[in-house]
Amino acid sequence: QVQLVESGGGLAQPGGSLRLSCVASSGKLFVVAAMGWYRQAPGKQRELVAAFTHNGRLNYADSVKGRFTISRDNAKNAVYLQMASLKPEDTAVYYCHAEVMEYGSDWYVPSWGQGTQVTVSS
Fold first, then answer.
1. CA distances (Å), origin 7, targets 54, 79, 81, 96, 107
2. Cα(39)–Cα(56) distance, integer angstroms
3. Residue 22 phi, psi dihedral angles, 5° rounding
């Protein structure tokens, strides 16, 4: 069972910055095929923010292009989201997502973190 733990959320002023971190861990050896970030604002559906896809390409939501940067540290099984020029509309719960294959398994399983709150307000 793979665990995803997010950190780095909090309160920021408009125009400010935050960095989110997500670390994957398991009692078994595992491979992460895809990893990224989603967010869900009150009253809205969960949406993709940024992700590394299975084919190695990067996807960004149009609303965050030029402001957010996703990065990955394979040695640490971690993914990061550097958020700059924050806007009030970025306020949401941000969730780490990964598709993981554990040792002894033959397929990838989606995993979700518990979420971390990001609030952008003056």
1. 24, 11, 10, 10, 28
2. 21
3. -140, 130
Please tell me whether residue 64 adopts helix, strand or coil conformation: coil
pLDDT digits (tens, 9 = 90+) for 74-105: 889 999 999 999 999 999 999 999 999 988 88
Query: CA 71 → CA 23, 88, 105, distances in Å?
Result: 12, 23, 27
Q: Which residues of 27-56 are buried (b: 16+ CB within 10 A; e: fewer)?
A: eeebebebbbbbbeeeeeeeeebbbbeeee
Burial class (CB in 10 A: 0-12, 13-18, 19+), 61: middle
At 43, is the secondary structure helix, strand, or coil? coil
> Contact at 8 Å (CB) between 46 and 104?
no
Which amino acid belongs to residue 27? G
